[in-house]
Amino acid sequence: MFKTILHHHASSCSDCQKLCCTKIEDFSVKIGRLTIFDHVNIHIHCGQLTALIGPNGAGKSTLLKAILGEVPHTGKLHYVDAKGKHTGHPVIGYVPQYLRFDVSSPTSVMDIFMACLTRRPVWLCSAESLRPRVLERVRAAHLIDRRLGALSGGELQRVLLALALDPMPDLLLLDEPVSGVDQNGLELFYEIVADLREKEDMAIILISHDLNMVAKHADQVVLMNKGVVMSGTPEEVFADRRTKKIFGMLAGESAQEAAADIPAGASDGAERADDEEKGAHA
């Protein structure tokens, strides 16, 4: 659970020749007669952050659990590395929304790393030999000897992110990782994620209800509601009437923020396409 590679900008989601990508193909999860989500298809390039948005109960967290293999599902997960070799299943890192533990426990950050990084009993291992350098990547090296229960929300999430980075994954799943984290912690977390995406060329799937942050950081946005309603750039998704129907004014504000980062003329093309669609319906 606590367990990327050539950065590129493909011209389309189908452009994966000799480029690193992950494909989620026809994923469905059903419990008895209840359909959680159906026929989900998502294509993610390495170095790309894909944000999943949607109302509560849309199936977003269940999709991540299906990718992890924790819930029964149909569909296939395909991974192609930077050399174009079909390797089947990517190495996956996962950061949960929160971690349940006894806050009064004396367990330290080092203790949890030692428990996760070795199969030998912790008391037989040298703490210095296992001292995780990955904490430096998430700016949490100073937390190594601190008790888990003494960490702030943002500090704990950075520790969980460090655990997810050992071994370095091909695909990183983030399930509302900054829920309940203050503004400074939130901005620091996204800054670290952006650095990982750029330097490690990591494919990232993020679930978030913070549409402004999604508009600022995501390359691709997938709107889910029992399946994929639509996907595209932040500007395209937030400007769509289906997104506005679900999120109301928040989607409009996020669309404006996304448009602020789009080169002049790009938004005009989207508006023309929308006008053509309206004309076709008329």
Q: How are strands sequenced across the largest beta sheet?
A: 6-7-8-3-9-10
Radius of gyration: 20 Å
Number of β-strand runs = 10
Give the SSE order as H and E letters. Answer: EEEHEEEHHHEHEHEEHHHH
Can you describe what's shown?
With 282 residues, the protein is α/β, with parallel strands linked by helices. Helix content is 35%, strand content 22%. The protein is built from ten helices and ten strands. A six-stranded mixed sheet has the order 6-7-8-3-9-10, sandwiched between helices. A four-stranded antiparallel sheet has the order 2-1-4-5, with helices on one face. It is globular. The termini are far apart.
Essential attributes:
282 residues; alpha/beta; 6-stranded mixed β-sheet; 4-stranded antiparallel β-sheet
Give a quick summary of the entry:
With 282 residues, the chain is an alpha/beta fold. It has 10 helices and 10 strands.
What's the arrangement of secondary structure elements?
Layout: E1 21-31, E2 34-45, E3 49-53, H1 60-68, E4 74-80, E5 86-88, E6 92-95, H2 109-117, H3 134-137, H4 153-164, E7 171-175, H5 183-200, E8 203-207, H6 211-217, E9 220-224, E10 228-232, H7 234-239, H8 241-247, H9 249-260, H10 266-281
Parallel strand pairs: 3-8, 3-9, 6-7, 7-8
Antiparallel strand pairs: 1-2, 1-4, 4-5, 9-10
